Amino acid sequence: MDKILSTFSFKAPFAFSVVPFLLVIVILCSLSCFAKRPDWIRELPAKSIASQSNQSLQPLGVYRKRTNAKTNVFSPNLRVDWNEEIEFFSDGSFEKRFSQTMEPSSKTIETEESQGKGKWIQRENWILLETMQIVRLKCKFSPNSEKKCKETREENKEKPTHVLLYHFHNQSLISLQQESNYQESDFGIAWEISQPFVENKSFWNARKKYALKEFQPHAYFSVKLD
């Protein structure tokens, strides 16, 4: 009997200490899941705020993400090659292009392409991309079958179908929130800084972090075309 009591008195404090720890985890997860998406990543800063950067260069030409082939630990034979780039034109328009090829072991190759068109507006280092049209093309084919494709189109002449803010510096362009092929995720520079549009130490640290990110890359880099 004494042995049973001594065992219970040893394990009980540990059992009770786990409860607050689990509560903290649940609260943190809840805050993360329901965190409000920053609204300011859909607009340009006021001129008085933007003037701190003194940026005069324009991001003309092609800017491309540094991508690596994707693999899946659960499907070792699956390989996904992809590319994503933005081309800026001097008339204030742009094209955002995405392409992806999936080659599974079944030999049925799947490809996906998208092209977004719209206008870009710059205020110092800040660039707002307003996409007015998105065309998507998905295809499937194999060596012994005919190529089958499906095209979808998103277009609104009155207002943009997608709007996102980018930061331009040293021939690199980076979105304030993770985005690829017009699919967004709730993390990025805007989620790690407390003051919108302020290029302070906290901002530059976050920018450097996401500019170097290889998995789910945020940054586009200038490409010299022949």
Protein architecture, described:
This protein has 226 residues and is an alpha+beta fold. 21% of the residues lie in helices and 41% in strands. The chain is built from 3 helices and 12 strands. The chain has helices at 2-33, 47-50, 201-211, and strands at 61-64, 70-72, 75-88, 93-103, 109-123, 126-141, 148-155, 162-169, 172-175, 179-180, 183-184, 219-223. It has an 8-stranded antiparallel beta barrel. The chain is globular. The termini are far apart.
Order of helix and strand elements from N to C terminus: HHEEEEEEEEEEEHE
For the biggest β-sheet, the strand order reads 1-3-4-5-6-8-9-12
Number of strands: 12
The poorly predicted ranges are 1-16, 26-35
Element layout with pairings:
Layout lengths: L1 H32 L13 H4 L10 E4 L5 E3 L2 E14 L4 E11 L5 E15 L2 E16 L6 E8 L6 E8 L2 E4 L3 E2 L2 E2 L16 H11 L7 E5 L3
Antiparallel strand pairs: 1-3, 1-12, 2-3, 3-4, 4-5, 5-6, 6-7, 6-8, 8-9, 9-12, 10-11
Summarize this structure briefly.
It is globular and about 60 Å long.
Features:
226 residues, alpha+beta, eight-stranded antiparallel β-barrel, two-stranded antiparallel ribbon, 3 helices, disordered N terminus
